[in-house]
Design goal:
Helix content: 10-25%
Radius of gyration: 18 Å
Low-confidence stretches: 1-22, 211-220
Distance between the termini: 25 Å
Mean pLDDT: 82
Structural class: alpha+beta
Largest sheet: 6 strands, antiparallel
Number of strands: 13
Strand content: 25-35%
Amino acid sequence: MSPQWCVFFSSVLVALFGGLTEACSCGPQHPQTAFCNSDVVIRGKIVGSEEANLENRTDGTGMWLRYEIKQTKMFKGFESVPDVQYLYTPHDGGLCGFEPSDATKQTEFLFSGMVTAGGRLTVTVCSFIQPWKKLSPAQRKGLMHTYKHNCDCRITPCNSIPCELSTEAECLWTDGLFSRGWDHVQARQYACVHQGDGTCSWAVQKPAQQASGLHGASNQ
């Protein structure tokens, strides 16, 4: 599943706290942006699932899936949900519901989600959810340190040329211009970081065991 952000229609935004009524649309989101925009980011496995009628409806609509989670690491959200036991998602995949395939049900994932009414951690198909083993060493470093310290740096997808910066604290994300997807070099190897003068630019995330120091990369 590619890193993505979810653009909900206004009725769906309301529906997250009530009934889901319309489909959603997903677009590209850099892992750093996904981390910064999420309330909670954890590593863990799905160990069980069941239907949940959170709205006490009797017409069979508005059902949710509740996934029981075995959390192994929390990267963000300690103050919101100290220990994640459950994830909630719309039951209907057409309404952004996330459902892992049978082949990945015992896989350790990185989950990012939002805390909604009642303190429930909610995810959708547009959430940043990745098998842990597929994350690059640079992305893991970002989760542990870099992303959280650079959340006021803005990453903007460049969908077509020309692309222009709107602020100096911005990095243009151009992976999608040179490939059929967005999960490429800038997503897997770079973070958008402060340069100490009010500007932000791309920097390679070197794992600790590799050569120390971050090597800057100019904005595209």
